[in-house]
Amino acid sequence: MKVLLINGSPKKDGCTYTALCEVAGALEKNGIQTEIVHIGAQPISGCIACGRCRKNNKDCVIDDVVNEIAKKAMDFDGFVFGSPVYYAAASGSLTSFMDRFFYAHGKYLRGKPASAIVSCRRAGSSSSIDQINKYFSISQMPIVTSQYWNMVHGNTPDEVKKDLEGMQTMRVLGNNVAWLLKCIDAGSNAGIEMPEMESRIWTNYIR
Asked: DSSP letters of 50-99?
């Protein structure tokens, strides 16, 4: 079993990475393989609403890091998305990444556990977690929680490491992700299958 951890910060080895490493360490101790990928510091375009990914059942027409990571993601069993807090929200780069990633590929992620972690200097963390979690809930992905909201505080990696409660929250999260993955695997081996999907009904508010 493998978990992909996505670093949505422009800083490759910053505070968000420090928190993700703590989650990854707990997963590895539970026998779960991990990989941390960085979306980079280059601009990521938002969705241009062309619809070609849905129409042709293909990758996003904007061929960049979104498609690159999406190809990798299909081989993973669970996900952790990490972001710094910018104006009480996830980073603009991660938001653009997730808009396109989930619109084009969300249907392939159904049933795979996911979690959001955020790093902030002081505040805005809860709203950022809520924003990221919405991508999981609309894609029918089980959302994994910890003993507190999945956040760390600090302005540098060294300060984050001094947030002992935050770092413990990351370890508990890693343990919980590993446990749920093993539960899903045991259920699958026992013959428990995913619920059958109904044909999607679309109802607009204005008629």
From this structure: --HHHHTT-S-SS-SHHHHHHHHHTT-SEEEEEEEEETTEE-HHHHHHHH
SS3 151: strand
Which residues on adjacent β-strands are paired with residue 89? 86
Residues 165-202 pLDDT 10s: 999 999 999 999 999 999 999 999 999 999 999 998 98
Query: Which of 37, 139, 128, 134 is CA-nearest to residue 80?
Result: 37
**63 vs 3, which has greater pLDDT?**
3
Q: What is the pLDDT, as a whole number, of residue 45?
A: 95
Q: Which residues contact 40 (CB under 8 A, 6 or more apart)?
A: 10, 65, 93
Q: 3-class SS at 118?
A: strand
Q: Check: CB of residue 120 under 8 Å from CB of residue 88.
A: no
Rounded Cα distance between 140 and 12, Å, is: 29
Whether the CB-CB separation of 51 and 63 falls below 8 Å is answered with no
Tokens of residue 14, six digits: 């910053």
Q: How confident is the model at residue 128 (pLDDT cuts 50, 70, 90)?
A: very high
